[in-house]
Each structure stands twice: as C-alpha cells, then as structure tokens.
Description:
By secondary structure, the protein is α/β, with parallel strands linked by helices. It contains four helices and eleven strands; from the N terminus they run H-H-E-H-E-E-E-E-E-E-E-H-E-E-E. It has one domain: Rossmann fold (3-Layer(aba) Sandwich), CATH 3.40.50. The strands form three sheets. It has a seven-stranded mixed β-sheet, with helices on both faces. A two-stranded antiparallel ribbon has the order 4-5. Strands 7-8 form a two-stranded antiparallel sheet. Helix 2 (36-56) packs parallel to helix 3 (76-84).
Amino acid sequence: MWPRTYCRVNVTVMSVESTKAAMRKQALERRKLVTSQERHAFAEHLAGEGVRLARARPGVKVVAAYWPLAEEADTFPLLRALADAGFTTALPVTVGAGRPMLFRRWAPGDTLVKASFGLSEPEPGQPVVEPEVLFIPLAAFDRRGHRIGYGKGHYDATLAQFRETRDVLAVGVAFGRQEIPDVPDEEHDQKLDFVITEDELIDFG
C-alpha cells in the first residue's frame, strides 16, 4: 500500500490532467464551428498583427511560427508577411515528447517533410536558428496568459529552456471561442506574453 501522502499528491496531479483534458476537448469542439470565411479573415488579420508585434520588439531577427493542423489558425500568410518584411522565418522540429524543440529556417516556397504527430517540418539540412519571437498554437487559453496545449509538453519545455538564457516573446494564436475562464496551471507551465484572436490582441504584460 502506497504512503498516504503519495496517494494524495498523485490524485491531485491526475485531477489537473483530467480537468485539462476535458477543457481541451470542449475548446477544440468550439473551434470546429469556425467557418472557412472566418478562418480566411483571421489568417490575414494574424499576418498584420504578427508583423507589427515582431517589428515593435527591438533586435528581433528570427521569428518562428507553426505549420497548422486541422482546424488550427492558418499561419502561412503570417510566415509570408514576416519573410517579406525581412525577418528570418522558422518552423519547429520535434525531437521527442516533452523535450524542447529545435527550430529550422524555413520560408514560403521551401520544401516541407512529414514528421511525427502529423506535422510538417523543414528538411533536416536546413540550418537551426534561435527565434526571438514564437507564434504558438493552443487548444485553450485564459486571461492570465495560461494555455492548454495538446498534451505533449513541447512548447512548455521549449520556452523553459529559452527563458533560462534569453528573453523570448511567446504569442499564442487562437480563435476567441477557445478562451476559457481559468486554466488550471502547474509549476512547469510557461505563460504567454500575448494572444492574438480574430478580435483582440491580448497583452498579459
């Protein structure tokens, strides 16, 4: 029989995980209701807001975004606009669940290869870069800057590693209907600096 204190802590952890899973499922169901017209409009809005954020931050040279899956907000116009504005653009490369990601240089027109979790990534020969701004996908977010991802821990591990040695801007990308009242955050969770939705630029600073 496990010590009583061990059981209590384990139940708490499982409770947080199950709560996040339920919140993730509900938020993603709401995201499915976004129309194609809304998706197109948000993609163009995101491109404009994203370039303005990158330009407003001194010293930014490299900006990373994600390649969208399923109903995620389309980041291709953002990546194109950033490249046109003179920024080096990059996409993440996963190296294992819960481990920090690498970022390889990628610009519109470059080849993508299929990777784990159904992701598309730059070719292995592309240079590894260190972004100063990250545009991050999410399942749900709250007004405190906390997010619920997809349960793999990639972005929390990546931001934790980056923030040990340098300043990096973390910008969540989501539709407004993915907002929830309160994310049950844990010690390892990394806060966002901003969230861009179709209606708002939310500053958590």
